[in-house]
Amino acid sequence: MAFLKGDPDKKLIRDIDAARTSRDNLIERLKVAEALVPECKAAAQRLAVDSADDAALDRAEDEVRRAQDRVGTFSAALDEIKAQIVVLEKEQADRAGKKQRQATADEIEAIKVELAASWNVLDPAITRATEAARRMSDVVLDAHPLTAFLMNVRTELGPAVTMIVADAEARAKATIAGTAPPTISKASPALVETPKPEPVKLERLFAIQPIMFANTAGHIRRVPRFSHVDLNEQQAAHARRMQVVTDDPQRIKELTRRRASQQLPELHHCFDLDKGTPPSGDPNLMIRHSSTGSGRGVSDVSDVSDVFDATPTKEGPFEIYQGKPQDMMVPVTPAVGTGTRKAEDGEDR
Fold this sequence. Notes:
Blueprint lengths: L7 H42 L4 H83 L6 H35 L25 E5 L3 E4 L5 E4 L3 E5 L1 H10 L2 E2 L2 H10 L12 E2 L13 E4 L18 E2 L8 E4 L8 E2 L8 E2 L8
Parallel strand pairs: 2-6
Antiparallel strand pairs: 1-4, 1-5, 2-3, 7-9, 8-11, 9-10
Helix pairs in contact: 1-2, 2-3
């Protein structure tokens, strides 16, 4: 009965193991037999030197011939067992190859079925989407290109799927027959989602001077003063060192009221937060409040016209800096009747 025959693959493995054991045993016995031949020859020669009689020499020569015959027997048996092992290993390889080919054919069949089933679901969906887009084109003109695209997709995908399914069936048959590779080539990398880079940690600050920096996309961005801006760690550090930003809520609230519609500043007027350098062009006058004023530190203005107009004024607690911050301090003491100081809220005081 069939269930008593056992697994043929396991039986083949047992036969190969037994043949290899016999081969190893014959190799050891052949070594012993080959070593015995010169010993028997040496014994016969000693008898001849000692002038032994013919009967003694006959016995010694018989021993030599038996040792030589034993070597021949073991050598022939070893050749035979080696040939058996080759046959058994070839049968094992053929069985494994047949299994591999069948597994590959089954995998191809599964992929083919999945592709056909996916198209059977996609085809009606594309048909409905095409009809809906066609009707929508009567309402929205931009729907015409979408309609044409969907029609082309349905026209081209259907025959392509049919052709690929037929080619897959032929490949599966060729794989089983042995005329195609036994495995599916993995030369083309599978479509995998590219891991997204870790998001850059940004800090929101408030610019009080024109600044520029490279954003996360690598594009140079210019930001006018009195604007919120998101900076990375290095940019924020440079901005704080050059005192061109603030994160003081009260100060931001005050300065936001003064913000007006501004054009983007010129590059040579911007502080570079990537390099940590001041503007490359001739710097404007940057105004600071003195210790006798509001005590806010760096002012939010970069032009004298934000503080003084052409009308007379009394002197105010302001200090004007020319060039880089803290390079030069010139106390401003305008003569009476030559200037008027503006308050931060736009009203004269």
